[in-house]
Amino acid sequence: MIASTPPRTTSEVQYQVMWNRLISVVEEQAQALVRTAFSTSVREAGDLSAGVYDAQGHMLAQAVTGTPGHVNAMADAVAHFIRRIGRENFAPGDIYITNDPWEGTGHLHDITIVTPSYYNETFVGFFACTAHIVDIGGRGFGADANSVYEEGLYIPIMKLADRGVVDQTLMRIIRGNVREPDQLVGDIYALASCNEIGHRRLIDMMKEFELADLSGISEFILSNSRRATLERINALTPGMARGEMRTDGYAQPVDLKVQLTIEKDRILCDFAGTSGLDKKGINCPLVYTKAYACYALKCAIAPEIPNNAASLAPFEITAPDNTIVNALHPAPVALRHIIGHMVPDAVYAALDQFLPGRVPAEGAGCLCNFQVSLRPRSDAPAPPHARRAEVLTFNSGGSGARPGLDGMNATAFPSGVMTMPVEATEQVGPVLIWRKELRADSGGAGRHRGGLGQYMEVGAQEGYEFDIQAMFDRVNHPANGRQGGSKGGATTIALDDGAPMRGKGKQFVPHGKKVMMAFPGGAGYGPVCERSTAETLKDLAGGYITAQAAEELYGLAPQQIADVLERAKNGEAF
Predict the structure, then answer these.
(1) Which ranges does the record mark as transmembrane (predicted)?
(2) DSSP string spanning 482-500?
């Protein structure tokens, strides 16, 4: 009689190898999206997310490339797809789609694609990805809408492809409702393709390790991640602390208030007391608030633990209905990042009381984005080749100083997206970037200096006028220092003739005019009197601070300043 083969067991070492492989799979998934996307926000800024999920819809791994707002919100999205589509309706070749702000990632400008993955005709899990698209119709990307119905085309959770057959009726509806149909349809196909890339690599892995499904690796990833996260939380002293911060809002200031409670096995983050809904589109669905609150807590408490469903679960985020951080349908939410990107600094105001010396000073917070809608000039004959164009550009102010280091210059924290190169921006439309450089003195003074913001001057080619959609904050409420540090520089925006402009909203720019912008700096950390003279001299030589600031804020003597500037002029190193 032939002896039966004992069942194959998988060691922890093998599971760890598989876990690392899954991370590489989703990173390749994300890079495929970067390489094939039509929108500059994806190709150049990396405003996207990609992930793999088990059959129950639990996120197992996320790509390194991407933003916390997309990734952490998308962690909850797949459960909505399962509920809306129904497991009984899943089939090989299916592709699902939505841009629902409350069941996706926070606003209509994000398309989320979910693809069920099959191996040997057995359903084993999902791949999902999200990308910000430049135009979804409606008023366009901006804060001016009064409800979500004005903000663009809504795509409920539905099948984009049924058993491999694309829904051409849906594609025609999409094309008929947006300004840049080829760009949007191209992005949708890029999203679907990157999920297919992830699926292929997953099947390769399953064949290599002789896996019939993902149940074993899923249990390994989720149980280990949860255990490690709970160890970090339970090492903290239980207690409660409150934090708050004020931002510009649209027509009136917004107050973010947080009560942070550390208990056994969980951290509660409650936004009771936060301002109510705004009339304009800066409101934030709770899914996006949760994404950035969890991100802030993980960065401070468990930064080395991979991001997945289990490592996020112990962080519980709540807010009263129809506060600005828990906007319910049909609130306008197009610029939900204006509030969502400020959430980490509000959380850190509370966490600093638990963990002094752990969290940074406030930074610029939200991205310094603007969208330019160009058209042939109307005040005189336009060139025959003039055409309409939509150009979106992502930019950053400075991040806050850290307890042991200066803040990072023109770096997007907490969003993590990249600043778009001038060359890429000018390539997609007749826009001209006349100036883009670091803004001296914008970093708040302190033992550690805040990161610098930047200057930008924007106009249009000859024969064009344009509307600019401003999406700025920190105009009236610059970043606050921590532990005695100074405020960062405030945002400014005006026409080149000095006429002031608003920090938010669509505004007309006549032919031949430029928009002059100065983006905010991060705040300082610790008393400025504790900053070393050597660091101040280096900042002066590098142009990060001016001679006036070196003398008035940092206490350098006039002769020291003159000597440093002379050495810098001669190219001497510091």
Answers:
(1) none
(2) BTTPPPPPPPEEEETTS-B
In this prediction, residue 574 carries a pLDDT of: 65
The partner residues of 515 in beta bridges, in order of sequence, read 458, 495
Helix (H) / strand (E) containing 2: none
Amino acid identity, residue 269? C
Residue 467 corresponds to which tokens in the numbers above? 């509307």
**Contact criterion met (CB below 8 Å) for 209 and 19:** no
User: What distance, in Å, lies between the first and last C-alpha atoms of the chain?
Assistant: 81
Task: Name the token pair of 66.
Answer: 């991407």
Confirm if 385 and 394 have CB atoms less than 8 A apart: no
Q: At 378, which helix (H) or strand (E)?
A: none
Interacting residues of 358 by C-beta distance below 8 A, sequence separation 6+: 300, 351, 352, 403
Return the CATH number of the domain spanning residue range 12-226.
3.30.450
Q: Give backbone dihedrals phi and psi of 161, rounded to 5 degrees, phi first.
A: -135, 135
Is the alpha carbon torsion for 402, 408, 414, 416 positive or negative? negative
- Cα distances (angstroms) measured from residue 256 to each of 67, 277, 398: 22, 12, 21
Q: Read out DSSP for 92-133?
A: TT-EEEE--TTTTTSSTTEEEEEEEEEETTEEEEEEEEEEE-
Kindly report the pTM of this predicted structure: 0.95
* CA distance linking residue 195 with residue 73, whole number of Å: 18
d(CA 231, CA 227) in angstroms, rounded, equals 6
CA pair distance 212, 476, nearest whole angstrom: 58
Which amino acid, residue 150? E
**Cα separation of 496 and 509, whole Å?**
10
Percent of the chain clearing pLDDT 70 (strictly above): 98
The strand order across the sheet containing 369-376 reads 389-393, 369-376, 464-471, 504-509
pLDDT range class, residue 8, cuts 50, 70, 90: low
CA 208 to the chain's CA centroid: 35
Q: Kindly report the CA angle at 183 between 180 and 189, in degrees rounded to 5?
A: 140
* Angle 228-293-315 from CA coordinates, rounded to 5°: 35
Interior angle at CA 123, CA 119 and CA 126, nearest 5: 95
Query: In whole angstroms, what is the distance from residue 108 CA to residue 376 CA?
Result: 28
Q: Which residue has the tokens 């809306």?
A: 84
Residues 56-94 have pLDDT tens digits of 999 999 998 889 999 999 999 999 999 999 999 999 999
Buried b (16+ CB within 10 A) or exposed e, 431-466: bebeebebbbbbbbbbbbbbbbbbbbbbbbeebbbb
Q: How many residues does the chain have?
A: 574
Smallest CA-to-CA distance from 292 within 361, 235, 346, 227 is with: 346
Structural tokens at position 475? 């105009």
Q: How far apart are CA 427 and CA 392, in angstroms?
A: 12
Instruction: Identify the CA nearest to 114 among candidates 138, 101, 98.
Output: 98
E strands, 139-293, where?
158-162, 165-166, 239-247, 254-263, 266-270
Q: Are the beta carbons of 524 and 401 closer than 8 angstroms?
A: yes
Give the torsion sign (CA, 499, 505, 511, 516).
Answer: positive
